[in-house]
Amino acid sequence: MGILVLPGTTRAVAVARQWVGLVLEADGWKSTDDAVLAASELTANAVRHTYSGTSGGRVTIALLGMAGDQVRIDVIDEGGPLVPRIMEATSGALSGRGLRLVAELSTAWGSNALAAGRCVWALLPMNHDQVDEWQ
Ligand SMILES: Nc1ncnc2c1ncn2[C@@H]1O[C@H](COP(=O)(O)OP(=O)(O)OP(=O)(O)O)[C@@H](O)[C@H]1O
Ligand SMILES: [Mg+2]
Asked: What positions does the domain Histidine kinase/HSP90-like ATPase occupy (predicted)?
């Protein structure tokens, strides 16, 4: 449905959120909040935990409509020493909830190493408008 490349700043997270909502709505997807939230968490992770967040770094967000009313969100970062993993639930912890949330919202998620970075993806169950017949 679309692909967006942004500088890896905290501002990118807000921009990604708006862009994902607008693109999904324009494409006829309903109730986009969960997808927007998942994209927001994945983009924040790329900015915070990878070289995407260093000077000149970029983060790429791609949206793909899939069969069976699912939307795939890909967030591509520029890599680094860390690996995405769901943290142990600790009630007092201020962080470590993002991927747990993504896992709960999605039917599947995962991450793939790329030549120069990583793609973290999530598959969101969603509803789509009836497609009108061509007149
Ligand atoms: N794109 C990524 N590349 C490398 N490591 C990652 C990436 N995303 C997440 N991680 C690692 O996985 C951990 C868990 O991510 P998660 O989003 O659940 O928590 P957090 O980002 O630390 O905190 P929160 O999302 O609650 O602000 C991170 O602390 C980081 O070590
Ligand atoms: Mg996070």
From this structure: 7-120
